[in-house]
Write a structure and sequence with these properties.
Number of helices: 6
Radius of gyration: 18 Å
Structural class: alpha+beta
CATH superfamily: NADH Oxidase
Helix content: 25-40%
Number of strands: 4
Bound molecules: flavin mononucleotide
CATH topology: NADH Oxidase
CATH class: Alpha Beta
Strand content: 5-15%
Oligomer: single chain
Largest sheet: 4 strands, antiparallel
Number of domains: 1
CATH architecture: 3-Layer(aba) Sandwich
Length: about 180
Amino acid sequence: MENLHQLLLERHSIRRYTEQTISPDDVRTILEAGLLAPTSKSARDWNFVVVEDREVLLKLAECKKFGTAPIKNCVLAIVVTSNPAKSDCFIEDASIAAMFMHLQAADLGIGSCWIQVRNRYDEVGEPAEAIVQETLGIPADMPVECIMTFGYSAETRRPVDPDKLLWEKVHLGRWSDVQADGE
Ligand SMILES: Cc1cc2nc3c(=O)[nH]c(=O)nc-3n(C[C@H](O)[C@H](O)[C@H](O)COP(=O)(O)O)c2cc1C
């Protein structure tokens, strides 16, 4: 898509996918987007674990109580980790990389969804992060931010209506209860 703003209006979290696989070139382009993401002090100390194996995806889907359905039916998951020993902005760094991949996928016509791992727990209270680390051999000192799921969309989402944006969240010059109108 040539127009970033149009992409942002049309982007959604996509949670249901067809069985169509994603080409290696497109997987690479998505990963390239993650590697292009800006990081504090240019630390670039994230790691991305690429998972396509169905058994492993099903195991990852058990990492927390709610909100893992997309992992069960996606064709690709990218687990995003970052390194607090290398950056005090590790959460921000990981988040931005995840979002870059989400937007890159949308631009390729591929749906994706962020699955929160940090601060989430499974049925018996075990941290989702520990389950993901153990499943994928991720070192215990590498926090897992999220699992990004990818696949061709099996759902229809409408573009956002720009008239419905929350312009009351925008404060002009200083905090105020007077609403900006977006013009
Ligand atoms: C930090 C963060 C955590 C999220 N965690 C989950 C999740 O665990 N499971 C899920 O299905 N969606 C998750 N989402 C997707 C949000 O639910 C989604 O972005 C939100 O409902 C708005 O929908 P939209 O992305 O289509 O605009 C997460 C999104 C963000 C940014």
